[in-house]
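Worked Example 4.2. Consider the chain below.
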Amino acid sequence: MTTAPPLDVDALLDDPHTEIIVCCGSGGVGKTTTSAALALRAAERGRKVVVLTIDPARRLAQSMGIEQLDNTPRPVPAVDGAAGGSLDAMMLDMKRTFDEVVESQASPEKARQILDNPFYVALSSSFAGTQEYMAMEKLGQLHRDARQDGTYDLIVVDTPPSRSALDFLDAPERLSSFLDGRFIRLLLAPARGPARLMTAGLSVVTNALTKVLGAQVLRDMQTFVAAFDTLFGGFRQRADQTFALLQADGTAFLVIAAPEPDALREAAYFVDRLTDDDMPLAGLVVNRVSPSARTELSAEAAITAADRLRSSDSSSLTAGLLRLHADRVRIIEREQHLRERFAASHPAVPTAVVPAMAGDVHDLDGLRAIGELLADGG
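Applying the procedure from the previous section yields the following C-alpha cells:
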C-alpha cells in the first residue's frame, strides 16, 4: 500500500514566510469552502488575512456572515482575534478590476476614452480568459498594497472553477497574445501608417470585416485598439510580475480534490502542470472522504450473511442493514484505492484527507470545523 506524506496545514499557515496560498482544483470539490476555512484558521492563529474568491456562487459571503462580497475587502465579523489576527473577504469584480488597471496605466482622458468604448465593455466583461487574468491582476494588487502598508501578511486565493485546469496561469499570456496578435495589428494599421501604405489587400480584409462585424463594431474595435495600444507593454509587464510572484518562495499552491476518479485525474494534471511550471506545490487536500468503517466485517461477509437471512421475514431488516454496510465498505475501499493510486503516481505530494461532514457549511462554526479537519487530516 502506497501512502502519501502528511500535509501539515497548521505549519503552512503559521509560517510567516507563507504570504500567498492559492487553492486550485476543478469545480465541485469544495475549493471555496476550503479556502475560507484556511483563511479563518490562519486569522484565528494570528495572521492578518484576506481571502479572495472568484467563485460565482456566493456561499463564502453567507458562511462568513457578510451580506455581500465585492471588489473591496470587507472585515469578517465574529472572528476570534485573541491571537492578534484578522480576516477580510472579497469577491473578484472582473470588470471593475480591469477598469482599475486601465485607470492606473493611462491618463484620465485616455482612460475615459477606453472605458466608454463599447468594444472594451464587451472585452472586460466576457472575453474568454478575462476572469482568470483579472484574478491574477487582483492578486498582484493585493500583494503590492500589503507590502506597502502591512494590511495583510497572508492572501488566500480561491481560483476560478475551470475544467481546463490552471487556465489562470495561461490567461496573462492568452490575453497578451490577443492584444498583440495579427488581427489587432491589422486593426491598428490605418492608425499607425500613412494612407498610402494601406494596400489593396488590407482594404479587402477591412471590407470583409465590415460585412461580418458591421461598420460601427469595426470602428469601435479600431478606436479601442488605437487607444489601448500604449498600454500593451504595461499589461505584459504586470502579467510577467504576477507570474513571477506565483513562482516565488512565499507562495504555496494547494490542489483540492474529491475522492472521485475525475476529480483526482484533474488533481494529477494540476500537480504535473504546477511542477512543470516550477510553481511551489504545498500539497493535496482530498475533501469529503467517507469515514472509515469501525468494523472488521468485510463487504463480502456482510453480503453472505444478508443472503442467509433473506428467507426469513423477521430478519429482513438485519439483512438490509448488512447490505448497506457492504455498500459503505465498498465505497470506502474504492476511495482508498483511488488515493493510493494517486500517491503511487505522485509519492512526494503531501496530502490531507478531510472526512465528509453531515451537512453543508453555513457559518463560521462550520468553517472552523473544516479547519480542524484540515489540520487533523495530515
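The first helix runs from residue 9 to 14. The radius of gyration is 26 Å. Compare this with Example 4.1 before moving on.
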